[in-house]
Write a structure and sequence with these properties.
With about 425 residues, this protein is α/β, with parallel strands linked by helices. Helix 2 packs antiparallel against helix 10 and helix 4 runs parallel beside helix 5. The longest helix is centred in the N-terminal third of the chain and has 20 residues. The mean pLDDT is about 95. The structure holds pyridoxal-5'-phosphate. Pyridoxal-5'-phosphate (PLP) binds next to helix 4. The site of pyridoxal-5'-phosphate (PLP) has 13 residues, from helix 4.
Length: about 425
């Protein structure tokens, strides 16, 4: 049993100051909403304070020492992210605000330049709105057709018709791990087949980069998007990985300062990668702090994090299944090994929002709603689900607290 008594686990928990603070009702904070946003370790918070207190200056332009320190730290953070996902070149990492902006960058830049009527964009039925709405709009603007890989009820992608769906497809855009069901896309199967059909592949890695080792070269993915705030980093910073040749051929997304090489009154030549895609003053502090988050995750070990989450998720599935005869419905793949650390559920006829509010009384934070996957919820016939999601600082004790809080909710709703 992994609990706070395990020395490594105890050290990790102690690294997150918020976890030591009781809730406003005096309960132990049981944070089970890391799929929405993770908590931040002290090292990340200190990186922000160090920058603002020690070397705050704008980057790239200043010749004085303070500006050089800020520039070095900012670019070093990019190199850390590149190493973290095993990019071949540091210039292949473009800073964005989050996963959503990274996907929009590809949609506006690559998509508008490359798609024509008669082409297709292939995504799936489990996508987050951030990996769906940009493609709906791109299809509308370009006359391309939007297609979907169907999903089984547990979120597993059904690949029987993949070759037909890939015919005429120029772009495949898929979530690595579903934020609602936890199902993991078989990218090792899909990416080679997409490439063989002549398509470019974008992976929405918002729920994978924080939780399991991701190697962009091993996957041979063309674009990959992730958010800092879900991987122990601050809000307001994320990144797009893109293969260098693709990024070089793409027009800029946003324009203005910093992304230029030379400007006359009439015309502009653009900066080299990665700065071609980073118009205006960047989010310097948060990029540097994301570098600190990457250091932190690397030190803990991504293999350890994945194994830990499988253990905790497996224990959670086992404990939650004891409530099934009382009306608890658990969604997603049956085995912890086949899913990320995300469990969606409903309890008898309690609305998911009421359930989340009741759990909150016991200090247990879970998300309730459509999880930004409204089409998936509609397909499944669920108005909403509650969702518990785990990360490196969660333990089996947190799972026990969740189950105890569910039992308290059952009492309130007189569920026998
Ligand atoms: C699978 C997936 N894609 C995209 C996003 C969007 O992330 P962000 O809001 O950080 O852009 C999320 C956030 O929950 C997600 O889970």
């Amino acid at each position: 049993m992994i609990a706070a008594a395990d020395p490594k686990q105890a050290r990790i928990i102690a690294d997150f100051p918020i976890l030591a603070k009781p809730t406003s009702r005096g309960k132990r904070l049981v944070y089970l909403d890391s799929a929405a946003s993770s908590q931040k370790p002290r090292a990340v918070i200190e990186a922000l304070v160090d920058y603002y207190e020690g070397y705050n200056a704008n980057i790239h332009r200043g010749v004085y020492e303070l500006a050089a320190r800020a520039t070095d730290a900012f670019e070093e953070a990019r190199a850390k992210v590149a190493r973290f996902v095993n990019a071949a070149h540091t210039q292949e990492i473009i800073w964005t605000r989050n996963t959503t902006e990274a996907i929009n960058l590809v949609s506006f830049s690559w998509g508008l330049a490359n798609l024509r009527p008669g082409d297709a964009i292939l995504t799936s039925q489990v996508e987050h709105h951030s990996n769906l709405v940009p493609w709906q709009l791109l299809a509308e603007k370009t006359g391309a057709e939007l297609r979907f890989i169907p999903a089984a009820d547990d979120g597993t992608l059904l690949l029987d018709d993949l070759d037909t769906l890939l015919r005429g497809t120029k772009l495949v855009a898929l979530a690595h791990v579903s934020n609602t069901l936890g199902s993991i896309a078989p990218l090792d199967v899909i990416i080679p087949r997409a490439h063989a059909a002549g398509a470019v592949v974008l992976v929405d890695a918002a729920q994978s980069v924080p939780h399991l080792p991701v190697d962009v070269q091993a996957l041979d993915v063309d674009f990959l998007a992730a958010s800092g705030h879900k991987m122990c980093g601050p809000t307001g910073i994320g990144f797009l990985y893109g293969k260098r040749a693709l990024l070089e051929a793409m027009p800029p997304f946003l324009t203005g300062g910093d992304m230029i090489k030379r400007v006359t009154y009439e015309t502009t030549s653009f900066n080299e990668l990665p700065w071609k895609f980073e118009a205006g003053t960047s989010n310097i502090a948060d990029a540097i702090a994301l570098g600190a988050a990457v250091d932190y995750l690397t030190e803990v070990g991504m293999d350890w994090i994945r194994e830990h989450e499988v253990r905790v998720t497996s224990y959670a599935l086992e404990r939650l299944r004891t409530l099934e005869q009382r009306g608890l419905a658990i969604y997603g793949p049956a085995k912890a090994e086949d899913r990320g650390g995300v469990i969606s559920f409903n309890f008898a006829d309690i609305h998911a929002h009421d359930l989340a509010s009741l759990l909150d009384l016991d200090g247990v934070c879970v998300r309730a709603g459509h999880h930004c996957t409204m089409p998936l919820m509609e397909k499944m016939g669920w108005p909403a689900t509650a969702r518990a999601s785990f990360y490196l600082y969660n333990t089996e004790e947190d799972v026990d607290a969740l189950v105890a809080a569910l039992e308290n909710a059952a009492k309130v709703f007189r569920i026998a």
